[in-house]
């Protein structure tokens, strides 16, 4: 059996000091394999972003282990984390692409920068930037534009392209489609499915069960910092075991929300009964 790209074991994270100290993650254990998408769902404050940030070395852990491609990175110092992030084995995409992209850099500069740092020639970096845009189904016309000059959906696709520059084995996506309209949402989800098929491991964070249901192989449910349920997506949706998961499934906004289109509701129903 191949080693999972990401192994999280009994992970604990605390915020604050002394009397203000609060536990944000309680003994979280989760594996993500190459070519697998794990959807991480849970209400606001349940610890989803904390788990993402811990996996990227952006918050200190207070217990447990994190292994990336079999390498124990838990006790890495900031310098080692920076090197790991720069090597680009793990990449991330945030809900707001302006957080993933430098607003002053053109699309071409954003995509070329990590390659230039790696010593790739300017000409080759330009060629690779075009190939990356093509991979996220965007036209090369966007290359000279800065993020403020393109649409939100295009921006998020550029953020995904930027995450792909270093050919990561793992991408953590924190609410990547939450700010997008449904047409752009579908397009970004399609791109993520293609990445998964190419063997990239994805952690897809969302509070929207509908988006997760359409892409995740497995779903992990966080509740108050604890993983209360992990299983195959269809099983978690159709036969939720934990009362909190049952509540999430029964209150899936796309089913309840009167403003959801008929097509959206039918799509989710089909997913639920698949
Ligand atoms: N920098 C911080 N300092 C102190 N407490 C924090 C910090 N970041 C998060 N927390 C707390 O940790 C808990 C988990 O927060 P986290 O942001 O991981 O939740 P989340 O599930 O991602 O929520 P959301 O869906 O709103 O983004 C919350 O109680 C939050 O208030």
Kindly list the characteristics that best describe this protein.
single chain, 274 residues, alpha/beta, Rossmann fold, 2 domains, 4-stranded antiparallel beta sheet, 41% helix, binds adenosine-5'-triphosphate, nucleotide-binding, Oligopep_ABC_C, ABC_transporter-like_CS, ATP-binding
Strand order of the largest sheet: 6-7-8-3-9-10
Distance between the termini: 28 Å
Please identify the top-level CATH class of the largest domain: Alpha Beta
Low-confidence stretches: 254-260
Biggest β-sheet description: 6 strands, mixed
Shape: globular
CATH architecture of the largest domain: 3-Layer(aba) Sandwich
Named CATH topology of the largest domain? Rossmann fold
Task: Please estimate the helix content.
Answer: 40-55%
Q: What does the oligomeric state look like here?
A: single chain
Tally of alpha and pi helices: 12
**What's the Cα radius of gyration?**
19 Å
Helix and strand composition category: alpha/beta
What's the number of domains?
Answer: 2
Indicate the mean pLDDT.
Answer: 87
Element order: H for helix, E for strand = EEEHEEHEHHHHEHEHEEHHHH
Total beta strands: 10
Beta-strand proportion? 15-25%
Bound ligands, each once: adenosine-5'-triphosphate
Domain ABC transporter: 8-249
InterPro entries: AAA+_ATPase, ABC_transp_ATP-bind, ABC_transporter-like_ATP-bd, ABC_transporter-like_CS, Oligopep_ABC_C, P-loop_NTPase
Keywords: ATP-binding, Nucleotide-binding, Transport
Organism: Nocardioides conyzicola
